[in-house]
Each structure stands twice: as C-alpha cells, then as structure tokens.
Amino acid sequence: MQHGPAVRRRKLGAELRALRTSAGLTSGEAARLAGWHQSKVSRIETGASGVKPPDVRLLLDVYGVADPQLRELLLVLSGSGDGDDRHHWWHAYRGVLPPTYRDFISLESQASAMRTLETTVIPGLLQTPEYARAVTEAALEGASEERLDTLVEVRLARQDVLRATPPLELSAILDEAVLRREVGGPGVMARQLNRLVEAARLPHVRLQVLPFGAGAHIGMTGPFVIFSFSRTSDLDVVVLDHLTSSLHLERKEDLRVYSEAFDALSIHALSPEDSLDFIAGAAAGA
C-alpha cells in the first residue's frame, strides 16, 4: 500500500522493463542506445528514481513503441503534461488541487473502466452541480466561495470521461444510504436522483443499489475504486480515499481481493434493472 506517485513510478518502470524485454534488449544495450549509464535504466525500471517525460519518450523510441495510446498513457504516468489536452486539463488547477487528487484525476482520465463502491455519497462522475457544491461545502467547512466554485468546476470537468470517445466504462454499486442521505435539501436530492436515472440508461454506465435489506456485507469496510486500463492490466490499481490523502494498492493479490469483493457485492445488490426502478422510486419520494 503506497501513495500514488510511488505506485506510478513502479508501474511505469515495470512497463518499460517489459517493453525493453519485448524489444530483445538488455538493460546495458538499452542504456547504450539511449546514451546513458546502465544504472539509470535499472533505477527507472525498479522505480527507485523518477523519470522525466523526455527520457520516457527516448526509451519508447529506442524500444520501437509506436502505439500512440500506450505512449500517451506512459507519459501520463511520468507526469507529462504533453499530449491530448483532454487528458491534461487538470494541470490548470495545480495551485488548488492537492497532488493526490491530481493523481486520481489522471488515472481516471486514462482508464478504460472504473468500478466503484460508494457508501456515503453519489460518485463524483454522476453528481449534479448543486449536489457537488453541497458535498464540497460539507467537506471543506469555511472554504471561500471562489475555492468552492473552482472545486465544483473540477468535479464537473471530470465528467467528460463519460462523454469521451470511447467513454469510460463505469460500474458503480451504491449503498442505499447514498440515496437516502438528503444532501443539499429535498430539491437538490430529487434532481440528483433523477440524474442517476438518466445515467443508468447509458450503455456504458452500470448502476446497482445495495439495499439495507442485504444486511452486513464486505463493503461495510469502506468505499473503493478499481481503475482498469485496456492497454495493459499491469497498470490496474485500487484507490482508497481517506480524509487527507489517497492510498493506492498495486499488488496483484490486492487487485484480486478487491475485484472479488466487487463481484460479491454485485451479486448481493439489486440488478441494474431493479436498481433503476429503486432509484426512480426514491426520486419520486424525495
């Protein structure tokens, strides 16, 4: 269990090592072609040291990697602000967003799929502006209006991943408490629930409700997010949010445990069709 940047260095290093091996090069040969000392390649591959985007581009050229999407993903892992602006819009908010939040957004923007269990609030990607503001105000009591406006703006900008081509595949399991907790007042909550109904009808969004009647379940330990990447499963990661930071779990055994937990919760939850009816009923009664 580590903070995001360390995880990303190790994942980037592991992927670069795999690409070097696929290219049939030893670390010494790769270093010679890049004009470096062999120890630099070794440090990069083990995640012992960070690597700048220009060095990543050089290694990808040495290894003959032409796939633009894979190059883009690896450059994002190195902290690059180059490439498609859609994938790097959050750099404009560096002075406002903490590093852990920027890490989360960068993973979210590059992931092909996201599985999430939410036990307290509507997922950020599905929040209305009013709901997002009410949640942000509660989380940052005393924050200035300007800061609240900016954070809500960021929350809404994140939602573009659901309108991208191709869009992020979102699977969310919502504890019933998420739907029952009145955030922002009855009107705000009613509009938020109606927004969920609209989202649930999108082909790339799968929503399930875990009703109170399901009793005790493994998700009671807390919410989590699993990001998956189409280019390589080795970059998949679990993110656990805390009040002041986020933790990333990268080990295959951790990914397996959380994937199995999500699958188990999906079985205990209402079907997507029944969940849609449940949410619509909650909206009608809000």
TrEMBL record:
GO terms for molecular function: DNA binding. Residues 16-70 form the HTH cro/C1-type domain. PROSITE patterns: HTH_CROC1. InterPro entries: Cro/C1-type_HTH, DUF5753, Lambda_DNA-bd_dom_sf. SUPFAM superfamilies: lambda repressor-like DNA-binding domains. It holds the Pfam family HTH_31. It comes from the Bacteria. This is XRE family transcriptional regulator. It comes from Streptomyces caelestis.
